[in-house]
Design goal:
Length: 226
């Protein structure tokens, strides 16, 4: 990993379909996200933000170009390797929260650690630490249906940090929240980057939220706007 780069994207293209029906979602994108920084991806709906995040997160593969995470070239990984990378090195936060409704906040945060077979005592201690970090220590036994949207997203952030990822990917994490709650979530992400030393890529179209980022990468029609 050279020059403190956590994410290196080089001339990445992603095309869906062929011929006249081909959709060029990402067109020759190159950028670097440094370790310990929050990078905001800015752009209107359809600009390619989500596709780019899916590529960086190993949820999709580029049509051409290269992506590396912490010095690991994603093209060199098979599906099992990508799964391991997503489980151990990357945390995801989604616009729709993605919580399991039948589980409590504490149980939701603990799910990634269960998948890694983390010892019960260590898992429970980490869950308590994370819920306290996001301001929900007193809501550990509540289920998503008993929580506000902002509280649910805080649980989602805590869950994303469960396995101490190097990279946090958040796709419009404030999209379903009112402006004040959205700002609070973005401030939380900003604080998490500083306290945990994690690198964050956050897709957003809210100018107020972008002010909290270390840098902004703007996408338009699948290309970076200089």
């Amino acid at each position: 990993m050279s020059d403190g780069a956590m994410v290196v994207v080089e001339d990445v293209h992603r095309t869906f379909g062929e011929g006249d029906r081909a959709v060029h979602a990402v067109r020759g994108v190159s950028f670097t996200a440094r370790a310990g920084e929050l990078t905001a991806l800015r752009g209107r709906s359809g600009s390619g933000k989500t596709t780019l995040l899916n590529l960086v997160g190993g949820l999709d593969t580029p049509s051409s170009g290269s992506i590396s995470i912490a010095g690991t070239d994603l093209a060199g990984l098979d599906e099992a390797g990508r799964l391991e990378l997503r489980r151990d090195r990357i945390g995801f936060v989604f616009q729709s929260f993605g919580l399991i409704s039948v589980l409590t906040a504490a149980e939701n945060v603990g799910v990634p650690m269960r998948l890694r077979k983390v010892a019960v005592k260590e898992r429970e201690e980490r869950v308590r630490t994370l819920l306290a970090m996001v301001g929900l220590a007193e809501h550990a036994e509540q289920r998503p249906t008993e929580m506000s949207g902002g509280q649910q997203q805080r649980v989602a952030v805590a869950r994303a940090l469960a396995n101490e990822p190097a990279l946090l990917i958040a796709d419009e994490p404030t999209g379903q929240l009112d402006s004040d709650t959205g700002l609070a979530i973005m401030q939380l992400l900003r604080a998490v980057v500083r306290s945990e030393g994690v690198t964050a890529l956050v897709a957003t179209h809210d100018p107020q939220l972008m002010e909290l980022a270390d840098r902004v990468v703007e996408l338009r029609d699948g290309r970076i706007v200089e």
